[in-house]
Specification:
Layout lengths: L5 H10 L1 E4 L5 H16 L10 E4 L13 E2 L8 E4 L6 H7 L2 H11 L5 E11 L7 E4 L12 E6 L10 E3 L20 H7 L6 E2 L7 E5 L4 E3 L8 E10 L12 E3 L16
Antiparallel strand pairs: 1-10, 2-3, 2-4, 4-5, 5-12, 5-13, 6-11, 7-10, 7-12, 8-9, 8-11
Bound molecules: 2-oxoglutaric acid.
Length: 269
């Protein structure tokens, strides 16, 4: 598959999400699984000083997860998040999948150069994992909101192991907490906008991909199972986006090469 159908795109626009089953074939998924495990264990030929690596929390509380800072933090599979994966050729290749280019064309226009806001591994290690509160994927340091995120399952993602949960169609509600620097809802807002009866669990098999509108309300629970929940997620944005911190973002689709920019940012969530 290299392009989405118009019917699929209509579903994405209506619902704020679209699941693409088996987009990545099992052999390619295995390569990504092996690669991320090697990165976690410190065995990969990557520049660790360039990668944000965050250890998981012990008790599942978001505030107790490790610092979101650059560099390897020990040989363990208990990482929660690893960012800056666009600098790894294995992950960059899959980020350039033609379906993701098609989705970017549909969102931003085919002439728009596309940068990577963040390309990250999000993990809920077996029996661990950190609760991620309801939020929208937006940040106040940008002059415009990134609009498209791709979330790829590298393990089965289930309700039991903390798959992403969403409020379908919530991308149409606009920005709910505009003053929060990274889009989190206050508890009172979550009670109103994300009641349990409206939530939907995006259960996926390895190689399935969910396209998510960045304004779609989402979050995820802890992992209550012995199955790890490894995933790779990429946020694509217009490369013309201006960041108030002066950070530059690597180009994924367009003329400027990935290596000619320097991403020095960190991000919350
Ligand atoms: O992988 C997850 O659990 C969700 C990640 C997420 O929502 C985020 O980082 O903004």
């Amino acid at each position: 598959m290299t392009k989405l159908s118009d019917a699929q795109w209509q579903e994405y626009e209506t619902e704020g999400h679209l699941v693409l089953r088996s987009l990545i074939d099992p052999a390619a998924v295995q390569v990504l699984q092996n690669r991320i495990d090697a990165i976690m264990l410190g065995d990969a030929d990557v520049d660790y000083d360039r990668m944000l690596m965050q250890l998981d929390s012990d008790g599942g509380n978001y505030a107790e997860a490790g610092p979101q800072t650059k560099g390897h933090k020990g040989a363990t599979l208990d990482y929660r998040k690893i960012q800056d994966l666009e600098y790894d050729r294995v992950f960059l290749d899959v980020m350039r999948h033609p379906v993701f280019k098609d989705a970017c064309d549909r969102v931003y226009g085919s002439d728009t150069t596309i940068a990577c806001n963040r390309a990250m591994f999000m993990n809920k290690p077996a029996g661990k994992g950190t609760f991620l509160p309801w939020h929208q994927d937006r940040w106040t340091n940008f002059d415009r909101d990134p609009l498209l995120t791709v979330w790829m399952a590298l393990d089965p993602a289930t309700k039991a192991n903390g798959c992403v949960r969403i409020i379908p169609r919530s991308h149409r509600m606009g920005v709910i907490n505009p003053s929060h620097a990274s889009g989190f809802l206050a508890d009172e807002q979550a009670a109103v906008w994300a009641p349990p009866e409206k939530e939907f669990y995006v259960e996926l098999e390895p190689g399935d991909v969910a396209l998510l509108h960045n304004h779609l309300l989402h979050g995820s629970n802890k992992n209550h199972s012995q199955q790890s929940r490894r995933a790779f997620s990429v946020c694509y944005m217009d490369a013309a986006t201006v960041d108030s911190h002066g950070h530059e973002y690597p180009v994924v689709f367009g003329e400027q090469s990935l290596e000619s920019t320097a991403a020095t940012r960190t991000s919350n969530k």
